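Q: Convert this sequence to C-alpha cells.
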Amino acid sequence: MSSSKRALAAIATSALLLSACGSGSSTSDPNTLKVAANATDRASMDAVVAAFKQENAGINVTVTYADTDQLQSTLRTQLSSGTGPDVFTVWPGNGNPGALQVLQPAGYLADLSSRPFAANIPAGARSVTQVGGKTYIVPANYSGIGLIYTQKAMTEIDGQAPKTWDELITLCGKARAKGKVLMALGNQTPWVTQLVTYSLVATTTYADDPEFAQQMTDGKATFAGSGWKTALDKYLELKNAQCFSDQPLGTSYETTLKDVAQGRAVGVVQVASSLAAVRTEAGEGVELHMAALPAGNDQAKTRMPGAVSGAYGVNAKSGNQELAVKFVDFLASEKGQNLYNEKGGTLPAVPNTSFKVDPALASLDQHLRNGTTVPFMDQLWPNPKVQQEHFNQVQKLFSGSTTVDEALAALDKAYAAK
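A:
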C-alpha cells in the first residue's frame, strides 16, 4: 500500500472511531453498550462480547476497534468532550495518553473498587490497576513480549529458538540464506518500534539491576547511563546483520503478520496477543511458538517482558453505567477471563485453575514461574512523553538521522518533563 493510501486509511479509521463512539457517554438505550478496544485484542473481545450477549438476551454491544496510536490519540478527546464509549481499553499504570494514571486524575474513570473482582486482582498487579488504593480498571490479560515464530519456517531454515545473542545473530544469516528474514519489523507503525527495545532491555538492564525503574523514579539512574545504551546498540546491530525486514520504516504492523503467516519471515517480535492475529492470517493449523529474545550469551540472565497488558475501564460519565459495570464484571469472571485469553493467546490477569495455557505460551509461562519476567517499561514511566519520544527516536535511529547517545539524551529529557 502506498504511503498516501496508508495515510488515508489511518484518517478513515480515526474518523470511524470518533463517529462510532460519539454517543457513548449519553446512551439513551439501556440495552445498548458501546465499547472501544485495541485492534490487537479483536479476537479476544469478540469472544467475550458474544458470550455476554448470549447470557443477556436483548442486549446489544457494539465494539469499535482501532490501532493503538489512533485509540490513544482519540480517546482522551472523546472523554473530555463527553462523547466517549461506555467501556474502553485503558493501559495499566502510566506512560501513554490512554493509561490509568493519566485518565484517572482527570475524572474519566468510574471507581470499581466495590466490584467482586477487585479483591481477586493479584497483589503484583495492583500497582498498575489502582490509584490511591482504589481500583479503576479490570485487567483482562497477562501478556509478554518475545519472538513469535512458526515452527514450519524455523524448520525450513534448519533453526531453533535462539538461547544466546550469538545464536540469534547466526539465525539471522540462516534465514537470509533461505530467502527469508528472521524477524519481520513494522517500524512504520509507531507503537511497534518499542518492542525490540523492551525485549533487549529486559536483559541488558533488569537482569543485573531489577530495581532500575525505582532508581529512575528516585532520580538515581538515567537512560543514558544504563543498559538502555547496550539495548539500542544491539537493536542497530540486529538491523545491520539483516535480521529484520528490508525496509522496516516502510513496513506496517499488519504487513509483518502477513509476512510471518506466508513464510516470508520466520517470526516477529510482538506482544503475545498478536498470536491470535498470526493464526487468523496463517490458519488454525499453524504451529506457533514464542521465545524470549536473548540479549547476551549467559542464558541464565535472559529476562522476558511480562505484565498485565489489556485492561478496561468504565466511563465515569457513561449514560449506561449499570450495563457497563455488568459487562466488566463478566469480563473479570472466570468464564470471561478464559474466553478472552483462549482467543488472544495470553494468560488470565485474574488467575483461575480451569484455564489451559496455550502451548505457544510455554516460554512466557515458564518465565513467569521462574520469576524472570520484568514489567513493560512504559507502565512505570512518569508521563506519556517518554513513550512517544521512544517511538520517535527509534524511527530516527532507523533513518540514520540520530545516534544512540542523542536518542538516550532525548529520552532522559522527556522523562524529566512535567
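The longest strand covers residues 141-150.
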